[in-house]
From TrEMBL:
PANTHER family: BIFUNCTIONAL UDP-N-ACETYLGLUCOSAMINE 2-EPIMERASE_N-ACETYLMANNOSAMINE KINASE, ROK (REPRESSOR, ORF, KINASE) FAMILY. This is Glucokinase. InterPro entries: ATPase_NBD, ROK. Gene3D superfamilies: 3.30.420.40. Belongs to the ROK (NagC/XylR) family. It comes from the Bacteria.
Length: 286
């Protein structure tokens, strides 16, 4: 059982959990559970929803995992399991809560065997471990979703680049590369409120602003990746997260704009593992 760990991916609107076989470098079949979350609920409700998803995943396999490794957005005291997210329109009730202790009590699982890692780090680590950049010795990773996650690789290990708050255009990078930007910008252009990028793609493709908003996003993303590349000098970038599921509407343009800035074609790869990348990465980060 030492090779069986539980990987957990917590985002701004969801939680996914699955058992990971580290020896085989893959998710154990039929152990994945996913649930949508209300990131504005009370701390007890949120932690209860997380615990239920984790219990469902563990309940599909005989025995207990050796470890629970949780990928979660920052800011956070990852070592001690204390949430420090503030003023980000999510998880307000968890500010300064020791999530590690609360989950350990709820799951009746040793706190010493529950660890937290930055979600972008876990995503990149998963892609290094068994995904689209396996074999590369220098790469960067971006998770595009409720927030912006960034990570870079050193000697085969992923580290948090913490560039979501980097000064960018008229604010910080996350202001322009996140679900929040799509929601705000589309409302400015079309005077229509959307829920997220999935809603935009599924219900507003006939809008005269549909193409223009993705072109603008492509340019913003290319500018950001250009700055990221200049900082870390990687051989390739890999992207994941909920927004990446709409890659058909922005990724080719992003590559084109970035090539114009750099003077050559820089590889931007789409995650081959999808959601599994963060789960596998969380497990392999031990």
């Amino acid at each position: 059982m030492e090779k069986i760990v539980l990987g957990v991916d917590i985002g701004g609107s969801h939680i996914t959990a699955a058992l990971i076989d580290l020896e085989k470098k893959k998710e154990i079949s039929k152990t994945r559970f996913r649930a949508r979350l209300n990131a504005h609920a009370s701390a007890a409700e949120i932690i209860g929803a997380w615990a239920l998803t984790i219990e469902n995943a563990m309940g599909r396999y005989a025995g207990m995992p050796a470890w629970i490794s949780i990928a979660m957005p920052g800011p956070m005291d990852y070592k001690n399991g204390i949430c420090l997210i503030k003023d980000q329109d999510k998880y307000e009730s968890l500010y300064k809560v020791n999530i590690k202790e609360k989950l350990a009590q709820r799951l009746n699982f040793p706190a010493a065997k529950i660890s937290f890692r930055n979600d972008a780090v876990c995503f990149l680590q998963g892609e290094i471990f068994s995904g689209s950049i396996k074999g590369l010795d220098k790469a960067i990773g971006l998770t595009l979703g409720t927030g912006l996650g960034t990570a870079h690789m050193i000697d085969g290990k992923a580290f948090d680049s913490d560039l979501w708050k980097m000064p960018f255009l008229k604010g910080i990078a996350e202001d322009y590369i996140s679900t929040r930007w799509f929601v705000t910008r589309f409302e400015e252009l079309a005077e229509v409120k959307i829920k997220d990028v999935k809603d935009l793609v599924e219900n507003h493709r006939d809008s005269p602003y549909f193409r223009s908003i993705f072109i603008e996003f492509s340019m913003n993303l290319a500018k950001f990746i250009y700055k990221f590349v200049r900082k870390k000098m990687p051989l390739a970038a890999v992207i994941g997260g909920n927004i990446a599921q709409a890659e058909a509407f922005f990724l080719d343009d992003t590559r084109k704009y970035l090539a114009q800035m750099m003077g050559y074609s820089f590889p931007i790869k789409r995650s081959t593992l999808g959601e599994k990348a963060t789960l596998i990465g969380a497990g392999s980060c031990l």
